[in-house]
Amino acid sequence: MATVRVCVCGDEGTGKSSLIASLVKDVFVSNKIQPVLPQITIPPSIGTPENVTTTIVDTSARPQDRTTLRKEIRKSNVILLVYSDHYSYERVALFWMPYFRSLGVNVPVVLCANKSDLTDNTTPQVIEDEMLPVMNEFREIDSCIRASAREHHNVNETFFLCQKAVTHPIAPLFDYKEGNLKPACVSALKRIFYLCDKDQDGYLNDKEIQEFQYKCFDKPLSPEDLVNIKLSIAKSVPGSDTTKGVDMRGFLQLNKIYAEKGRHETIWIILRKYHYTDSLSLEDSFIHPKFDVPEYASAELSPAGYRFFMDLFLLFDKDNDGGLNDQELDALFAPTPGLPHSWVESSFPSTTVRNEAGHITLQGWLAQWSMTTFLEPKTTLEYLAYLGFEPPNTRETLASALKVTKPRKRRKRVGRVGRNVVLCYILGASGAGKSSLLDAFLNRPFDGLYNPTIKPRRAVNSVELQGGKQCYLILEELGELEPAVLENKVRLDSCDLICYAYDSSDPDSFSHIVDLRKRYPQLDNLPSIYTALKADKDKTTQRSELQPDQYTSSLMMSKPVHVSVTWNSIGELFVALAEAATNPSTAFPKSEEPPPDRTSLYLALGAMTCAAVAAFMIWRRSTNSA
Length: 626
Description:
Layout: E1 3-10, H1 16-25, E2 40-42, E3 53-58, H2 66-75, E4 78-83, H3 86-102, E5 109-113, H4 124-137, E6 141-146, H5 155-167, E7 174-175, E8 180-181, H6 183-196, E9 203-204, H7 206-217, H8 223-236, E10 246-247, H9 248-260, H10 264-273, H11 284-287, E11 299-301, H12 303-316, E12 323-324, H13 326-332, H14 341-345, E13 360-361, H15 362-375, H16 377-387, E14 402-404, E15 421-427, H17 434-441, E16 457-464, E17 470-477, H18 482-486, H19 489-494, E18 497-503, H20 510-519, E19 528-533, H21 548-554, E20 561-562, H22 570-582, H23 599-625
Parallel strand pairs: 1-3, 1-4, 4-5, 5-6, 15-17, 15-18, 18-19, 19-20
Antiparallel strand pairs: 2-3, 7-8, 9-10, 11-14, 12-13, 16-17
Helix pairs in contact: 8-9, 9-10, 12-15, 15-16
């Protein structure tokens, strides 16, 4: 916020203009001043909250000036309502506050009892009896203060409260009626506690408290201050044990004390350091940083991103069984809105590797995030923000957890593509065994019961390539959306490989692939592999113009790979798929014999030409010298 606009209201004769003049001149102006002062703008100073510019607008309470008053109230960020005697005090509840409500304005009100030099009733009890009833009746009153323009008492403080009511509002944080922090504030503070509890033991130890203090306030806590904080918590939270550190209840209670004592700017400093807005939601620019993936390129986790997710898994695997059970997953995702929507839609964790108990393993966890980053990098960035990823370099953003691969527009170019995550569509007739193939990819036992796939289904796992390099392979069967996906250019561009799968024991299975390639000629632009599934059953002749071996030979491609999900060698198929996806030039259909590779011949001819030119130049030079 760049400007705080203060509208000063109140009955005639309450000293509104004198308060403003006393603020500007820094002394009481005894000379008669004009009834309504012109608008005043005060630039930011050292003590100004959030370094804002303050505009102060004086108003008149006369009925004939009501139109101007109404306009100024609606333009303001905060209202300073001034009273000075019993009559003007009664008018606060009888006229002014109902009038503000009738205008439909939703801005904080600071109540100022001016001319405090004219009364002796300044004891805390009198102030409480006078101000608390009206504050309880009108929740929009942010704070109250007694001041005297004549004695220049609390004048600066009055306008500071107006600034603070806008820059550090109490209303979103604390419910005076209930005497508790509001639910949205509690949720935000719980997330902050979670992020600060680095070892996830439920306590902020002294080191974690100091790191939190330095992050929020740029200075350490003295040992005395740390002791006093723990004493305050111990007194106000029955049964709390501060010897281990500050627990969640204590942390919330500490912030409640700040709110009760009018130190809510402390809470706002904490919230804003953790990227919360005035509505207590995370800043959109924080959870959705700018991150563009060029055409034909893809997004992957960077080493820093993989390290973060690996450390997160190890931190929450409390029982050290190599898997995250439901309770551990709930604890891990506590500071987030829950599992990503796409994970829920795809029945996570069935999409990736699990242990015998059905809990996601570290291998499966990293594979799942690799797939999420590949398919929807903005979701990964959003959850990195929720989960507290901190870039290794303070000048970097959340996007440093991701990297963009080199575009691979020319798939037929010889050589490997610069990708560690690849996507393969499994296409084939119903009942060909595509779902069983995905189950085998995730090391699931074979289930002979046939369940047709309606919705698209994905599976992701790591595959070790030749030479020991690891990549993540995403297998996807398209279900009833197959026609829509194959007609979608963007979806096809994101695909690295097509695996045409057919049931070698079903005579009608292969014809589906032939028909598919005729209907969608754009599939010829993608690398592909042909796979004969259910090879453990008796092979049958396909009802097709060409048998599978003849068909692939006519395309000058490798013959179909015969596999069965019941064989231990099924893993070799996944390696072959990953190799073809990362080296796509080896898996393209060719309509004619490729031209012979004359590279060596061209190099030899080039070398001979250079040698001949050099010999000629030497001969020419020796002839000229002779």
